[in-house]
User: What shape does this take?
Amino acid sequence: MLAEGRLLNLGCATGHPSFVMSASFTNQTIAQIDLWLNAQGKQTVAGIKYESGVVYTLPKILDEKVARLHLEKLGVHLTTLTKAQADYIGVAIEGPYKADHYRY
Amino acid sequence: MEYKIKDINLAVEGRKELDLAETEMPGLMALRKEYAGKKPLAGARIMGSLHMTVQTAILIETLVDLGADVRWVSCNIFSTQDNAAAAVVVGKKGTVENPQGVPVFAWKGESLEEYWENTARALVWPDGKTADLIVDDGGDATMLVTCGAEFEDAGSVPEFNPATDSEEWGVFLATCKKIFEKDPKQWTRARETLRGVSEETTTGVHRLYQMAQAGRLKFPAINVNDSVTKSKFDNLYGCRHSLIDGINRATDVMMAGKIAVVCGYGDVGKGCAQSLRGQGARVIITEIDPICALQAAMEGYEVKTLDEVVSMADIFVTTTGNTGIISAAQISTTNGFSPTATASSCSPKAAC
Assistant: This one.
């Protein structure tokens, strides 16, 4: 039994690599900024007024922002929708591109 | 400055790893640049309970860069990288003799008693005030504040029942009891002044939704796990990298040609199965969810019950976040050398 049955990748190695954790922790940092802006009664990044007792997910446009921040490092060249294409599928050129129920 | 780590002299090698990690964490570095000089977290006391690794060190230093006053613990007794913890304590401007970083209370190989003591300690600042915000992984810090306050509401900490309760639950109750005897309102105040929690894992958000439904969540919470750029990347590609890294470092056993059983085919299971297949292992999946089972089958994996395959498999990996997946009796029927591993975004823990 490795790592006494606890997390093997963190107990016997060094966990996930930096690049993928950057995506996770960029979300964490945005979440912390938002909760603190909310606590001070300021406008939040997500535009949500966070209420006590409720569990929220960050809006898709911020999810897309996190992904965008990781594209250059991998040499990704993203295609931009034309106005006609954006209108055809009913999204804004700058996103968000998928409905909340889309599962990826 | 207070801290409790393995060895502060590890800070020099730790800083080298942090420097390297910064070049691989473009999202966090972009936020540092975007918010440079703006300090959006100024005045925020942030307590983190999340694996004290090199990557987490970059998160901590980003929060500090944005103005936060941070204290940190690991959310697992074995997950701390002691050099990363030392580098965070020393900080960018400090030295081993004069550390100026962030108070960390974590080391690799804590006892359960030490683990819960560290968690409680990190939640309370030297002036007696508690965290405004929590970065949680698996929900332990949130559970300590919430259950601690609920015990205070009830006027006592429940007795441990060794017949029905887990060992860890007993340690948790003992920790609560010790604090209750010293200050019977500590967690009540902490719960009142907590402004929010952001949660990293599948297990932790499951707990948060249960607490919200039961009316026990007394602050807002953000489910970071279900950001697509978290669970569809960290849980999947993170495990695809780190599962076989862990098996290799722990055993150096060759996976090619072996039969590997992966229990669970969620995001974590999918990553684990793919990495084992990439090593040339013959991978078999167990599942309770027909949708995930069908996904596994159509990806070309055999899907069986554990009992059908336990006697012939070489490697077992559990990825479910659940309890009682493989029993000692089942393992005793395996042939020879069978490394058994848990890979998940959080290990199952006691819950209140």
